[in-house]
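Lab notebook, bench 4. The sequencing result for the construct came back, and we need a structural model before the next group meeting so we can plan mutations. Quick request posted to the team channel:

Model the 3D structure of this chain.
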Amino acid sequence: QVQLVESGGGLVEPGGSLRLSCVASGFSFGRYGLRWYRQAAGKERELVAQISSSGNSTEYGDSVKGRFAISRDNDENTVFLQMNSVKPEDTAVYYCNVKIIKKMVLRDYWGQGTQVTVSY
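Done. Here's the predicted structure in C-alpha cell form:
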C-alpha cells in the first residue's frame, strides 16, 4: 500500500526558510520520480518541483525557481523541499506526489498535505 507522509510545515515570516519532508512507503522508492505540489485557498493545485528517480535531474515551477530546492534520500525513502526566501504567495498546502503505473493504468498517489503559512 503506497503511503506518503508530509511534515515540516508551519508558520514562517517572509524571507525566512522552511524544510518540508515526505516519507514514502509501499513501493520501490528509488525507481520513481517524486513531485511536490501546492494548493492555495481558492486556487488550483500547481506543480512546485520534481526530481528524477536518481536525484540527478530536477525541475521547478517558475514562481519558485532560485528559491526552492528539491532533493531526495533513497536510503531513507524521503524527499525534501527546501524553501528559502519565502513570500506570502507561497502560503498553501504542500503535497507530495508519486505517479505509478500498475496493470497499465497510471495512478497518482498523494500525501495528506502539510500547511505552510507565510506571514508576520
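Residues 75 and 94 are 23 Å apart (CA to CA).
Will bring this to the meeting.
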